[in-house]
Amino acid sequence: MNDVDVVVIGSGIAGLSAANSAWESGLKRVLIAESEGVVGGSSRLSGGIVMGAPTRFQQAAGIADTADALFNDYMAINQWMVEAGVVRTYCNEAGPTVDWLGDLGVQFHDELIFGGGEIVPRCHCAVNNGQGIIDALHAKARERDIDIALGQRVNRLLVENGRVVGVAVGDDEIRAGAVIVASGGFSLNKERLAELYPAAAAMGDWLWYIGADGARGDALDFVEPLNAQIIGQNRGLRLLHPNFINAVEPFLPGWMVLVNKHGQRFGTESAPYGVMDGFMRAQGDVAYVIFDDLVLHPERGPQVATYKQSIPGRGAERHNANWNAIMVEDMVKAGRIKSSDTIEGLAQELGLPKEKLAGTIARYNAGAHAGVDDYNKEEKFLRPLENPLFYGAEVRPATLCFTAVGMRIDSQARVLNDIGEVIPGLYGAGECTGGIIGDRYVGSGNSLSNGATFGRIAGRSVGTTFHA
Ligand SMILES: Cc1cc2nc3c(=O)[nH]c(=O)nc-3n(C[C@H](O)[C@H](O)[C@H](O)COP(=O)(O)OP(=O)(O)OC[C@H]3O[C@@H](n4cnc5c(N)ncnc54)[C@H](O)[C@@H]3O)c2cc1C
């Protein structure tokens, strides 16, 4: 006799979606085991941006979009190097899942935003960010009498004849008809980072993880005896990080110039952060930002935009955490931001080739005066760097947002073993899975939507099997 119909491991967006969906598919004895003392995992701390198309929120905003368009963009951005069948399901279901989140009480701002290079906006911004999503899903779970056991760190799966039949927290065992793993990533686990996400481990002392405490990669341990297939090697999301402070600023201000070790530009400074990670890998993960005195005295020069767009519900200024006048002045004094009255002098301070950096800035300035840019940066950002002092600082992709290496699932969120067989009774969703999020993060909004979509699918799949 089972203690419950289904156990969900983890109470982030994937786990709460899975539990609510299982309940909707007719399972009334649903238990969520959460290792920490608080519900919500990294989802709770997140920006609350969820991607999906088409949705009723898009429709209300007059935006025409399709799942096909999302799929085409997704595959192109990732150069087809994702699990295409599962991604097709994801793209088909992401839009309806955003609507479903709305049905469960998640509130989204009327205005949608662009995540990257898509033709129409398809990123939905939750009111009160990630906490707003978690609060709504949690409230719905309580209303439905879904049990949430806090402080219960699952460390073992119960397996009988190859079938997963429950979980264990130390000596306490709970038998269930199925188990849905939604235990998040492994960003806090140094050994796992070195093994599975070496690009993050390579950030060494610079590495700064901004997610929740539960991200120890426990699932990797407890699914190992079942030979679960682990895919998505070296994937996740790293954001640019300056050499002086731990503060989240996902986008670079568009008025900066970003150069590599050779003093040359290599990409659009205002590019989406999901793309910036890849740019940086191609440059050996080290670059330098260059700017001038107008950062300290904006009133002395032409007014230009800082970011491509603002996020509904958040002030624009709040996000300029690193590159504002107060911070720059302090960090120049601390010797972390270098300065000089000439570009050549700045190059010397930063250890960059003088002629190349001077040439790069001269060409950038000529373009800025003409309103054009070699990297197609929008005119609204263009401001020549010709007001000494000139400033520069080293940046690396060292702010670790999440990991994307994990269990391989099929389109029904069933976990596969290393010979491609379904592991009976075991389902997965969210950051603990691999193969859906690719080398390029399609976002904002890719990860929460992945968690919600496959959480919802997992709950439904368990329900279908249960009633079969
Ligand atoms: C600051 C920040 C901002 C972000 N902003 C966005 C955004 O706007 N849009 C977007 O798409 N993505 C965003 N992301 C990424 C996204 O938030 C995460 O990838 C996503 O929330 C993961 O959801 P999840 O449910 O899989 O994992 P989590 O939300 O991390 O939930 C996993 C849960 O499992 C628990 N757990 C772990 N091990 C065990 C165990 N052994 N037993 C029981 N429980 C366990 C954890 O404690 C945790 O509560 C952001 C991330 C961060 C850190």
Distance between the termini: 18 Å
Number of domains: 2
Assign an overall shape: elongated
* Stretches with pLDDT under 50, minimum 5 residues: none
Small molecules (ligands, ions, cofactors) in the structure: flavin-adenine dinucleotide
What structural class do helix, strand and pairing data support? alpha/beta
The pLDDT mean sits at 95
CATH superfamily of the largest domain: FAD/NAD(P)-binding domain
* Cα radius of gyration in angstroms: 23 Å
What is the CATH architecture term of the largest domain? 3-Layer(bba) Sandwich
Please identify the top-level CATH class of the largest domain: Alpha Beta
Helical fraction equals 25-40%
Number of DSSP E strands: 19
Number of helices: 15
CATH topology group of the largest domain: FAD/NAD(P)-binding domain
